[in-house]
Amino acid sequence: MSAPATARGDGPDDAPTTQPWPRGASRAATMRISDVLRALQGEFPSLSPSKLRFLEDQGLVVPVRTAAGYRQYSAADVERIRFVLAEQRDRYLPLKVIKDHLAALDSGAENRSPVPGGVVRGGSASPGDRPTVRSLAALAAVEPAVVQELVTTGVVRPGPDGEVDAWAVEITRVVAALGEFGIEPRHLRPLRASADRHVALVDQVVAPWRSQQSPAARTRAEELATEVADLCTRLHAALVRQGVADLTP
Q: How do residues 191-244 score in pLDDT, each as one tens digit?
């Protein structure tokens, strides 16, 4: 959690111990909600804008507000969010206890390195960081033939230069897990088509904002896209689980 601006320890005369944990992490608030989700959803797939707002309501993270009222986060904020989510997932700690741990880390009563995770960037990864079809098999620990079939069936869609996004790694890993049950990439075309229809729904919502040129409108478009996509994903999961429940009364 970033402390209020007066206590962030950014001034030249501030002692290192006054800086909230994690010390040394950048406190420049340049990351939007979509950037935070991009940085953390690989480790915490269920993270959503509403979850970030809930953590803010609980006092576990305090993003900076722009003049237009939009939230912006720093790399230090992201590390604190990662800490909270990891403590919940791995140690099943309630938020009150986690908040006490953060307070102890801030005061220096506890000492802990940031939770290992992906590199936090203030935006999208640079092109050189993106995986390619050729590297995807190694990154996802699958045979190259699996990747080729995913590309052939359209489940994974590389760009003209052969690059894929970070989601392609997760998609490939999930497909490999489904393969243990005899489900092959060719069986997954309907899921790809369903996802495309969800994206079209999201596009309908954000199109009016995306067409505007102001930075505030673009930020709002990204926030809406993430939130509506999360709701579509939750609805799809609920519908599938409802159907599966009927299979196993």
A: 999 999 999 999 999 999 888 888 888 888 888 888 888 888 889 989 998 999
Tens of pLDDT along 49-72?
Answer: 888 988 999 899 999 999 888 999
What CA–CA distance (Å, rounded) separates 137 from 158?
13
A 10 A CB-CB count for 35 gives: 19
CB 17 within 8 A of CB 106: no
Q: How far is Cα 172 from Cα 137, in angstroms, rounded to an integer?
A: 8
Amino acid, res. 116: P
d(CA 137, CA 147): 6
Q: How far apart, in whole angstroms, are the C-alpha atoms of residue 12 and residue 208?
A: 44
d(C-alpha 248, C-alpha 242), whole Å: 10
Q: List the alpha helices (DSSP H) in 186-214.
A: 189-210
Residues of the chain with CATH 1.10.1660.10: 5-107
Burial 109-140 (b: 16+ CB within 10 A, else e): eeeeebbebeebbbeeeeeeebbebeebbebb
Measured CA to CA, the distance from residue 157 to residue 164 in angstroms comes to: 7
Q: Who's near 248: CB < 8 A, 6+ residues apart?
A: none
Cα–Cα separations (whole angstroms), residue 25 to 102, 160, 172: 15, 36, 32
Q: Which of 207, 138, 202, 214 is nearest to 176 (CA)?
A: 138
SS3 assignment, position 3: coil
5-107 CATH fold: Multidrug-efflux Transporter Regulator; Chain: A; Domain 2 (1.10.1660)
